[in-house]
Specification:
Length: about 400
């Protein structure tokens, strides 16, 4: 039974081994998880949950990557959140076989690389019509009354786990600015198990597309379909839009797109055109915005602290390199781990290298003028600049 596994020391050791092996923990996160396990804090935390002493999550609004928009996330206290992490780890492995193979988000031995790779297995992909869409505020908009029957069916024989979910999901209260408020929570973006429930909610759509032999891929709320004709593409689009509406969800119109043969399509931060797979324009825009913000923030830091130009550039390049190359960093995939295995051109990498160098020179001089090129490329390398182009070619050689 899953309930007993949540207080089994062997399960926690397995989870720890997985997390440390995946390279997605910072040193402080690894230390904290080890202490949690060694002190067996999970026993008291699990006891509270199954006695019905369910705490309320805190709701926060955080900025979206590369956007001024805010998104709502929910956070449970540390001791409870770890229980939810192990629960999600168990659920994903136990029920992975219940999901269709055209779903790629948060799966065992699946992910972005496989999603794009499977699409590209179609030799005629460049001759196909596509439709791509995205669901607005997907996680927090899921209708719990429609989700629970599917969850109950999935968790047959695990009545206590189902009741735990029922209690968590049906309670519409959250702590907002230290006040208890009624909010629409859905499956609560930010809570570990939300990714599993988001996969489950549209499971029938995935199988419908599979049964109709439609080239389709879903990564959580990102969906794309391909068809050999515009009519077939439009029929698939109608099915998707109708299904999403029946589930009480809304399409994000700004992220809908259609392409015809020979036109560029984008999915999960990648673009495809005439056999060339590159970083998408939208992903480039977001990345450049992050680089600019970091550079300007560090100039303000320099003014406050009285740091030297060299110190400030080193700090800027450390931040950029962490984004691109670091093997740790919590739940975020390192940028190169996302893109390097899939792209087959250095076109965008060269553009990004140039952009990083441009803003590193700005950090050094405080100006955006041609005179910045007096700060030589060799100087930037000495201060920590690492070329994405060179790193990509090395990655390709190492993985041959």
């Amino acid at each position: 039974m899953i309930k007993e596994r949540l207080t089994d020391p062997a399960e926690w050791e397995t989870y720890l081994e997985y997390k440390t092996g995946s390279g997605n923990l910072t040193k402080s996160e690894e230390t904290d998880l080890r202490q949690y396990i060694e002190n067996r804090e999970y026993i008291e935390a699990a006891g509270r949950l199954f006695r019905g002493e369910i705490p309320l999550p805190e709701m926060k609004s955080i900025g979206k990557s590369g956007s001024r928009e805010k998104r709502r996330v929910f956070i449970y206290e540390r001791e409870i959140n770890y229980i939810f992490k192990l629960l999600t780890f168990i659920l994903m492995r136990r029920y992975d076989g219940r999901f269709c193979d055209n779903l790629y988000s948060f799966r065992v031995r699946s992910g972005v690389n496989k999603a794009v790779g499977d699409i590209l297995l179609r030799r005629d992909i460049g001759e196909m019509y596509s439709y791509k869409t995205d669901i607005s505020d997907y996680f927090n908009s899921i209708d719990i009354s429609l989700l629970l029957p599917d969850l109950k069916e999935l968790l047959k024989g695990e009545d206590e786990i189902y009741r735990l979910f029922e209690g968590l999901l049906c309670d519409e209260r959250a702590s907002v600015d230290s006040e208890i408020r009624q909010v629409k929570k859905g499956v609560m973006a930010g809570v570990p198990f939300s990714v599993f429930l988001a996969n489950l909610y549209l499971k029938d759509l995935d199988y419908r597309m599979k049964s109709e032999n439609i080239l389709y891929a879903r990564y959580s709320d990102d969906i794309i379909v391909f068809a050999p004709s515009s009519d077939e593409r439009d029929r698939a689009r109608s099915v998707i839009v109708s299904f999403i509406a029946q589930k009480g969800l809304e399409i994000n119109p700004s992220k809908e797109s259609e392409t015809s043969p020979g036109e560029k399509w984008e999915f999960l931060g990648f673009s495809y055109l005439s056999g060339e797979i590159d970083v998408s324009a939208s992903a480039m825009k977001k990345l450049k915005a992050k680089i600019r913000r970091r550079a300007r923030a560090l100039k303000r830091w320099q003014a406050r602290k009285g740091a030297t130009s060299e110190q400030t550039v080193r700090a800027f390049l450390r931040a950029v390199n962490k984004k691109f190359y670091s093997k740790t960093g919590g739940s975020d995939l390192t940028w190169t781990r996302w893109y390097f295995p899939v792209i087959n051109t250095d076109r965008s990498l060269r553009e990004i290298d140039s952009y990083v160098a441009q803003w590193a020179r700005y950090v050094y001089t405080g100006r955006q003028t041609k005179s910045n090129y007096s700060v030589r490329y060799e100087t930037l390398k000495e201060l920590g600049f690492r070329s994405l182009v060179n790193s990509w070619y090395k990655f390709k050689n190492d993985t041959k």
